[in-house]
Amino acid sequence: MEINNILEFKSSPEIKSKLATFGIAKTFLEGDVILRENSYIKSIPIVTSGSIRVMRTDEDGREILLYYIESGESCIVSFLGGLHQDTCKIKALAEEKTDILFIPIDKVKELIKEFPEWLDYIFRLYHKRFEELLEVVNEVTFKKMDERILNFIKKKSELTKTNELHLTHEQIANELGTVRVVVSRLLKQLEDEGLVKLGRNKIILV
């Protein structure tokens, strides 16, 4: 497999060669589950194209969006869980058609010992995810639901690089940990304020 610009650091030819040798390439379609909660992690995923949605589920089955993993990135939760032989604490799904290179945990440990830039890659991912989780806590604690919905739509727009999003009110409710009727009411409010336009299973960010 060609490994050129998939990592978020200036990787050396040596580490690219190792990743190509160790990695197992797989393709997932939109909605496919990539990581399951409470499963043991045997390899860590590096997204080569597409994106992953990372969710957390509570005891009642309600879910909340934590962050997205984009091309060139990996899942820091799987890094830490795999290295410590712990179970996965999140659920990860393909946001769209997504290509992933899976690196076995034992090979991940080899790369840490051999390549300083690989360890730096892990630390920078950890820092980015920590900031994103702080933002989730900030939104849930301090922001009103209409602000959270608008921010969610903006993030989706940035991720998909389009202002026209094909989303149902139920999908938004599931990812924000609320109920559909609340989302429908607040989306109508945002439309009245001229911030979005609503269509059938479609939202346009103005």
Features:
206 residues, alpha+beta, Jelly Rolls, Arc Repressor Mutant, subunit A, four-stranded antiparallel sheet, three-stranded antiparallel sheet, 25% strand, disordered N terminus
Poorly predicted spans: 1-5
Approximate helicity band: 40-55%
Mean pLDDT: 87
Q: What is the CATH topology of the largest domain? A: Jelly Rolls
CATH superfamily of the largest domain: Jelly Rolls
Number of helices: 7
Radius of gyration: 18 Å
How many beta strands in the DSSP annotation?
10
The top level CATH class name of the largest domain: Mainly Beta
The helix/strand class is: alpha+beta
Second-tier CATH architecture of the largest domain: Sandwich
Q: Helix and strand succession?
A: HEEEEEHEEHHHEHHEE
Alpha carbon gap, first and last residue: 40 Å
Largest sheet, order of strands side by side? 2-6-4-5
Q: Globular, elongated, flat, extended or rod-shaped: what is the shape?
A: elongated
How much of the residues is beta strand, in percent?
A: 15-25%
Number of separate structural domains? 2
The major pleated sheet works out as: 4 strands, antiparallel
SSE blueprint and pairings:
Layout lengths: L12 H10 L1 E5 L4 E3 L7 E7 L1 E7 L5 E8 L5 H8 L7 E4 L3 E7 H10 L1 H27 L2 H16 L3 E2 L3 H8 L3 H13 L3 E4 L2 E4 L1
Antiparallel strand pairs: 1-7, 2-6, 3-7, 4-5, 4-6, 8-10, 9-10
Please characterize this protein's 3D structure.
With 206 residues, the protein is α+β, with helices and mostly antiparallel strands. It contains seven helices and ten strands. A four-stranded antiparallel beta sheet has the order 2-6-4-5. It has a three-stranded antiparallel beta sheet with strand order 1-7-3. A three-stranded antiparallel beta sheet has the order 8-10-9. The longest helix has 27 residues, at 116-142. The radius of gyration is 18 Å and the shape is elongated. The chain starts with 12 loop residues before the first helix and ends with a strand.
